[in-house]
From TrEMBL:
Any single Pfam family the record assigns to this protein: LysR_substrate
Sequence ranges assigned to domain HTH lysR-type in this UniProt record: 1-58
Keyword presence, DNA-binding: yes
Domain of life: Bacteria
Family: Belongs to the LysR transcriptional regulatory family.
Origin organism lineage: Bacteria, Bacillati, Bacillota, Clostridia, Lachnospirales
Record-level GO cellular component terms: protein-DNA complex
Protein name per its UniProtKB record: LysR family transcriptional regulator
Alphabetized UniProt keyword annotations: DNA-binding, Transcription, Transcription regulation
MF terms in GO: DNA binding; DNA-binding transcription factor activity
């Protein structure tokens, strides 16, 4: 197995065709096909399924690619350290629930390592997809929360995917509302006071159960519910409809806007916010730097 072979299979997976991958890699199609066949034979796996309609990534191929990306990233870091050159295009991906501090840390990472070439991804996505991304090493780090309600279910899922949870901080529940909301002047808000207002939450797709919710107290019965997919929509509805959502209370005016405030919720429960990593993975320098940047916004 060579680094070149790993680059080949990743490029084929990204382009979806041997022809386009060969053009991008400046090699002949037969050479590319033979190199992949040799790698599959050596590793005793089928990376790509071949049909008369083309090629698709197999399930074991998807797992293999996760490890291949990590090997190439570590090789680039070695070249950067010992050969005195940039070591090629740097790649890094983090998947996260919708937290402003995750975005701020990502910005800091790019400012430090975003040189002439880089390929970074920040995926604000659904909880189950965060777990899947890290499990398949598409993302090096995933950010989510555990609490007394969802911990048993999510911890079991994390264990089955060979993932570890590392706690960053414990947050008490807060309500995000508009600065002009009728309850904005309260020093603390109760669930009873919120009953007449629309409750906003991030929808979770096929896994839209209470256990995968980004919001604490997701199992509470509410008369008015609105589910959204992105942060901007949620904040616009908070302002336009006097809606609310329940969150960690960590707020950033640059990202969330000056019209959104966080008010403590009258409940003793908490959110244990942290990050997940793969047990078989090794944290890269980019990953370590990103976690250090996170701490700056949580202190």
């Amino acid at each position: 197995m060579t680094l070149q072979q790993l680059k080949y299979v990743i490029t084929v997976a990204e382009t979806g065709t041997i022809t386009e991958a060969a053009n991008r890699l400046y090699v002949s199609q037969p050479s590319l096909t033979n190199a992949i066949h040799e790698l599959e034979k050596e590793m005793n796996i089928v990376i790509f399924n071949r049909t008369n309609k083309g090629i698709t990534l197999s399930k074991e191929g998807d797992d293999f690619l996760g490890y291949a990306r990590q090997v190439l990233e570590q090789a680039a870091i070695l070249e950067d350290k010992y050969k005195g050159n940039p070591g090629g295009k740097k790649q890094f991906c983090v998947s996260t629930q919708h937290y402003s501090f995750a975005v701020n840390a990502f910005v800091d990472l790019i400012k430090q390592y975003g040189q002439e070439e880089y390929d970074f991804s920040l995926r604000e996505t659904q909880t189950y997809e965060i777990i899947e991304d890290v499990a398949h090493l598409r993302s090096e780090i995933g950010i989510l929360f555990l609490n007394d309600f969802n911990e048993a279910v999510l911890s079991k899922l994390l264990k089955s995917h060979d993932l570890e949870f590392h706690q960053l901080f414990v947050a008490s529940p807060h309500v995000f509302i508009s600065r002009k909301h009728p309850l904005a002047g309260n020093s603390i808000i109760t669930n009873e006071e919120l009953e007449e207002y629309p409750y906003l939450s991030f929808e979770q797709g096929e896994h839209n159960s209470f256990y995968f919710s980004e919001e604490i107290f997701s199992d509470f019965e509410r008369r008015k519910n609105i589910r959204v997919r992105d942060r901007a929509t949620l904040f616009n509805l908070l302002i336009g409809l006097n809606g609310y959502t329940v969150c960690s209370g960590v707020i950033d005016k640059k990202l969330n806007g000056k019209d959104i405030i966080a008010v403590p919720l009258a409940d003793e429960s908490d959110m244990r916010i942290g990050y997940i990593t793969h047990r078989k993975g090794m944290l890269s320098r980019l990953g370590t730097t990103y976690l250090e940047a996170l701490q700056k916004y949580l202190g």
